[in-house]
Amino acid sequence: MGGNVVALGAVSLVTDVSAEMVTAILPLYLVVGLHFGPVAYGAVDGVYTGATALLRLIGGYVADRIHRRKAVAGVGYGISAFAKLGLLAAGGSATAIGMVIAADRTGKGLRTAPRDALITLSTPPGALGRAFGVHRAMDSMGAFAGPLVALAVLAAAGQTFDAVFATSFCIAAMGVVILVLFVNDHHSDNPPAVCDNPSPAAVSSRAALGLLRQSGVRRLLSAACLLGLATIGDGFIYLLLQRSENLAIGWFPLFAVGTSGVYLLSAAPLGALADRIGRVPMLLGGYAALIAIYLLLFGPLSGWLLIGVTLVLHGIFYAATDGILMALAGPVLPEQLRTTGIALIQSGQALAYLASSVLFGVAWHVWGPSGASRMAAAAALIAMLATAILLADRSSPHDSAEAAT
Fold first, then answer.
1. Contacts of 216 (CB under 8 A, 6+ apart)
2. Residue ranges of the domains in the chain?
3. CB environment 71-109: b (16+ within 10 A), e (fewer)
4. Cβ neighbours of 265 (radius 10 Å)
5. DSSP track, 319-361
6. Where are the membrane-spanning stretches (predicted)?
7. Is the pLDDT of residue 192 over 80?
8. What are the distances in angstroms from CA 6 to CA 3, 135, 241, 261, 264?
9. In 391-403, which residue ranges form alpha helices assigned H by DSSP?
10. Of the given ranges (46-55, 136-145, 248-257), which has the lowest mean pLDDT?
11. Quick one: 7-185+201-403 is in which CATH superfamily?
């Protein structure tokens, strides 16, 4: 595995410790501490992932235009780090919290596409699933540790949320330092993959818009949007678990630990398996696990069995999907516009996720959590079937290798 992939994985590991410290307590902080209702929480949760789609596109295009993917990613990591300090000043204001979260997600929007582009440019096309699996496994180490660190800080600081935010900032700053010192802003000597338009693409706004004329890009973008609409936020799943089992609020951050632990163990093996059996079947299998979660939340299981099965399936869902779509995207995007193309696909999924979170919050308010969960399962099934049709020509075990030859 290339040194750049490992270095980027280390950056993500440290950054995710910081991010998941906040993520693990944020639903509890908003719903229990500040008494947000499901509609208000759904709006904030949507902002948390989907509100920076335009900045993803701008960041991706600028990174390609100036050929400085590492620099753009560094700005994103820095913004997210300082946003943790903003939570200290936001208090109980929903508007201020929304603005701070938007700033944090702005940083994520700027950094994600350049980071993933660097991974694709540092890896042979036939090994992209394994590369993203290793990166996501390291990322999930941070996601696993973050909630535990948050619990330790809360215990040491007398259940003070501000202490978590301050510690999170310090850890995020370490991630920026690792990026500056150890990540190289260049790709390997592997020839770029051949895409739908084999001619080299100049980095211009016209060329960027021209990506949408490529059938492979359009289909991947459509699939990303459909799958984003079928995905509700982790916070909703954890809130439903906590309420259905009437658990003490102290257990809440450990749900994320369980998911991340399964993700950590399965991300690299499933990524390598996707390179052998096909990335589309792996992607669809992940969403089948998500449908099972939606149905199990109000199904026959209960108690710790329900919690355990749900968290295992949740971790498998992420291991089978997070990174696989980007591995599919790499071979169809020209090298000169790799970051822009990845940002385009990620932005479509993020906007769809924003809509999904808001709609799920409304559905919960109108039809209750059980009805909303069943509606989400039906939407996910439709999205799976549509994705299978859209990506049918990329479902063979050697899809990426064929695209590169």
1. 195, 196, 332, 394
2. 7-185+201-403
3. bbbbbbbbbbbebbebbeebeeeeeebbebbbbbbbbbb
4. 16
5. HHHTTHHHHHHGGGS-GGGHHHHHHHHHHHHHHHHHHHHHHHH
6. 43-63, 140-157, 163-183, 220-241, 247-268, 280-298, 304-329, 350-367, 373-392
7. no
8. 5, 7, 35, 19, 15
9. 399-403
10. 46-55
11. MFS general substrate transporter like domains (1.20.1250.20)
Cα–Cα dist 335/325, whole Å: 17
What is the token pair recorded at 403? Answer: 């695209």
Which whole number is the average pLDDT over 225-238?
Answer: 89
Output the six-digit token pair for 174: 């370490």
Measure the CA–CA gap between 115 and 104, rounded to whole angstroms: 16
* Poorest-pLDDT segment among 25-29, 98-102, 135-139, 372-376: 25-29
Residue type, 248: A
Other beta carbons less than 10 A from residue 196's beta carbon? 15
Higher pLDDT, residue 393 or 404:
393
Write down the pTM of the prediction: 0.72
Token pair 């609409």: residue? 229
The helix (run of H) or strand (run of E) holding residue 178 is: helix 161-182
Instruction: Using pLDDT thresholds of 50, 70 and 90, give the confidence band for residue 397.
Output: very low
Using CA atoms, how far apart are residues 21 and 299, in angstroms rounded to an integer?
30
pLDDT in tens, 130-152: 898 889 889 888 888 888 898 88
